[in-house]
Automatic annotation (TrEMBL):
PANTHER family recorded: L-LYSINE 2,3-AMINOMUTASE AQ_1632-RELATED, LYSINE 2,3-AMINOMUTASE-RELATED
Entry protein name: L-lysine 2,3-aminomutase
Region listing for Disordered, in residue ranges: 1-27
Any one Gene Ontology molecular-function term assigned to this protein's record: 4 iron, 4 sulfur cluster binding
InterPro entries membership: Aldolase_TIM, Lys_aminomutase/Glu_NH3_mut, rSAM_sf
Keyword annotations: 4Fe-4S, Iron, Iron-sulfur, Metal-binding
């Protein structure tokens, strides 16, 4: 009889323990697409019954701009407490270099998707530069000792009223001194906007028609100028008929090959750029520019991704559809607003990928009075330029620039010497401005730029205290 042997259990030979898999290090920045959303304006008590037709009306937006504390209180109601309003009043009364002017479109992008509280409003990056309060500003060094009202000396370089000739082949044409919105950090705070208790503004004195005639006369007489930045103020505040006439006159000058329209209102008041008469007029200008081989572009000014909404994207696409060659962004690098790598990359991806706007420049905030709380040191800007490289398409990777007085825009790595302790960087240039035609040494000089003093090491702060007292 055959016996069946019980099965033998096979015991596997011991194996060495697998090496532990190291955790994924990840990337310093992780991209996540964020489609644009128009925040719900009816969350504000003062706009609870505003319809979409009203919201998308440029006239309604202009009429309902927030110009003072009382109007802001009407919109916000008791969403923020009295301490905020007192803080704002203290700033407006003694410190602000720009009067308050905030379109509903811009206010609606502050604390867009979270409960509105005093703390959230104070921390909001768009609020920090559009509605500054006294507690934002520094008390140790509110202004740098070398800060000035016209820090870039644009007025000194006027060759006609409102026409700055700084670079050899380019001019800046300031057509007017108003905007649809006033930014607290405005580099032209000596001219743009209403006077404030802190700043008695300069005034344009010529009638607009005479000012524009002077610009055209100068450009016809100087064929070496090929590039005109048409600005102000903001060109969105020029009546369209007048702006179109000015642009067509520029297009009649054979030597003008680039025209750039500077308008923050593309973001702050996109409703303006969607008005039928503006769209139709822009198409006429764009077709004429294309026929004559002139590059027509719009330059706007967006500092934070929150500011980009579907209305901004629609206004941008409309401009491109009617023939504007490019829409580009020139932001300003500011502490507490956009001075981190995620801030800048989130903004650039929203600009380029969602709104159709090319990230172009980020300027270091200029050395104007009461702006030290916004400014960053050169080394910080250099680090940011390093850290954003490799994420964006090359053509959409912005350059971070320092606009050095008497020099102009320089990439932040172009300095020739840098005293980190005292925060003094030195820069050179390769052209003469319009006020240096007789200066044989202009190209051999080094020009200084200054970091915010509160960002310096202790020894540097002590040096500046002594230097300032002397």
């Amino acid at each position: 009889m055959t016996q069946t042997r019980p099965p033998v259990e096979t015991i596997p030979a011991p194996q060495p323990a697998p090496a532990a898999t190291p955790p994924a290090a990840g990337q310093p920045y992780e991209y996540r697409r964020a489609p644009l959303v128009e925040p719900d304006w009816t969350r504000f008590p003062g706009w609870r019954h505003v319809t979409r037709d009203q919201w998308e009306s440029a006239q309604w937006q202009r009429v309902n701009c927030v110009k003072n504390l009382k109007q802001l209180r009407t919109v916000l109601g008791d969403l923020v407490d009295e301490t905020f309003y007192a803080d704002l009043d203290a700033d407006q009364t003694a410190l602000a270099t720009m009067s308050m002017l905030v379109p509903p479109q811009m206010l609606n992008t502050m604390v867009p998707f979270a409960p509105m509280t005093t703390e959230a409003f104070l921390a909001d990056p768009v609020r920090r530069y559009m509605i500054p309060v006294a507690s934002d500003r520094r008390t140790d060094w509110p202004s740098h000792p070398y800060a000035s009202r016209d820090s870039l000396h644009e007025h000194d370089m006027w060759v006609a009223e409102g026409l700055t000739h700084r670079y050899p082949t380019k001019v800046l044409a300031e057509l007017l001194s108003t905007c649809p919105q006033y930014c607290g950090h405005c580099t032209r705070m000596d001219l743009v906007g209403n006077s404030t208790p802190a700043v008695d503004k300069l005034k344009l004195t010529l009638k607009p028609v005479d000012r524009y005639d002077a610009h055209i006369t100068y450009l016809r007489a100087h064929p070496g100028v090929r590039d005109v930045v048409v600005s102000g103020g903001d060109v969105a505040n020029v009546p369209w008929r007048n702006l179109e006439s000015y642009l067509m006159r520029l297009l009649d000058i054979e030597t003008v090959r680039d025209i750039r329209l500077a308008t923050k209102a593309l973001m702050g008041l996109p409703q303006h750029w969607l008005q039928p008469d503006v769209v139709e007029g822009l198409e006429r200008v764009a077709r004429t520019a294309a026929r004559r081989g002139v590059n027509l572009a719009i330059h706007t000014h967006v500092n934070h991704a929150q500011s980009l909404t579907p209305l901004v994207a629609r206004a941008t696409q409309t401009a491109l559809d009617v023939g504007v060659r490019d829409v580009r962004n020139q932001g300003v690098l500011m502490r507490g607003v956009n001075d981190t790598t995620p801030d800048l990359l989130d903004l650039c991806f929203a600009l380029q990928g969602e709104a159709g706007i090319l990230p172009y420049y980020f300027y270091m905030c200029d050395m104007i009075p009461n702006a030290e709380h916004w400014r960053v040191p050169v080394w910080h800007a250099q680090q940011l330029q390093h850290d954003i490289m490799g994420y964006l398409p090359g053509y959409a990777t912005p350059r971070i620039v320092c606009d050095v007085p008497f020099v102009g825009k320089r990439w932040v790595h172009m300095l020739t010497e840098y005293d980190r302790e005292r925060g003094i960087s030195y820069w050179t240039k390769n052209y003469r401005t319009s006020i240096e035609s007789a200066d044989l040494e202009a190209l051999n000089k080094r020009y200084a730029y200054y970091d915010p003093i509160d960002t310096l090491p202790e020894a540097g702060r002590r040096w500046w205290q002594t230097h300032h007292d002397d």
